[in-house]
C-alpha cells in the first residue's frame, strides 16, 4: 500500500512540475478549456435561475373574460354565476374583478400609477377570471371553452392566462437541449486540448520514457504522470471557468436588475449549486484523464 501511494505521489509531483516548468503553454491550455467551460456554466445559470419561476407559476389554465364596457355590474355578476352553474363540472371557481378594483390594483404599482394619473377616466373593463378543474385534456378543454365564450354578447375578448407559462416551459426545454449539445461540444474541446498537450509532452520526453523502460519501468509507471497532468489541467481549468462565469454574471445581473426594476420585479442569475459544480469539475477531470491516457498510449509506442 505504501509503495502504491508513493508511486502516485511521485506521479502527481511530476505532473505539477511539468505544469510549472512550462507556464505559458499550461496557462494557454487552461484558458482555452476554461473559456470553453464558462459558456455552458453561464447557460446552466440561466436555466437554474429560470426554472423556479416556471415551477412556482400555476399552470392550471385560468380563462379571463374581458366584458364589453357597456355591461353593467349586475349583468357581470349574473354572467359569472351563470357560467359557474352551467359548467360546474369543468369550472372550479369564478371571480369577478370590477374595473374599479383593477384600476386600484394598477395604481398600487409605481410603474403604472403615474401613467394612469393623467387619464381622464377608467379605461379598464370588468373581467371574470375562471379557474378550471384538472382533467386529462385540460389544455384542449380550456381552448374549447374559450372559443365558446368568445361568442357571448357580453364578452369582448377571452384570454387563456396559462399560454405564456407553457411557452416558457417550452423555451426552457429548448435551452436544456441546447445546453446538452453545448456540453458535448465543450467535452470535445477538452478532449482535443488535453490530447494535444499530452502528445507534445510525450514527444518532448521521448528519450526519458525510453530510458525509463530500459531500466524496467512499467507502462503504468510511464503513463501515470501524464494522467495526473490531464486531470490537473481539467481541474484547474474548471475552477478557472467557474471564476470567469461568476465574474461574467455580475454585469449581467446589474443589467437584469435595471431591466426588472422597470417592471416592478426582481430577478438575478446565480451559479448552479456547489454539488453540481463539484460534480462538473470531477467529470471534466475524468474526461481529461481519459484523453491523456488515450494520447500517451498512442504517442509512446516506440
UniProtKB/TrEMBL annotation:
GO terms for biological process: cell division. The keyword Transmembrane helix applies. It is a multi-pass membrane protein. InterPro entries: ABC3_permease_C, FtsX, FtsX_ECD. GO terms for cellular component: cell division site; plasma membrane. Residues 62-158 form the FtsX extracellular domain. The keyword Nuclease does not apply. The chain crosses the membrane at residues 27-48, 170-195, 226-249, 277-296. Keywords: Cell cycle, Cell division, Cell inner membrane, Cell membrane, Membrane, Transmembrane, Transmembrane helix. Residues 181-292 form the ABC3 transporter permease C-terminal domain. Its main location: membrane. It is found in: Cell inner membrane; Cell membrane. Coiled coil: none annotated. Belongs to the ABC-4 integral membrane protein family. FtsX subfamily. Part of the ABC transporter FtsEX involved in cellular division. This is Cell division protein FtsX. The lineage of its organism: Bacteria, Pseudomonadati, Pseudomonadota, Betaproteobacteria, Burkholderiales.
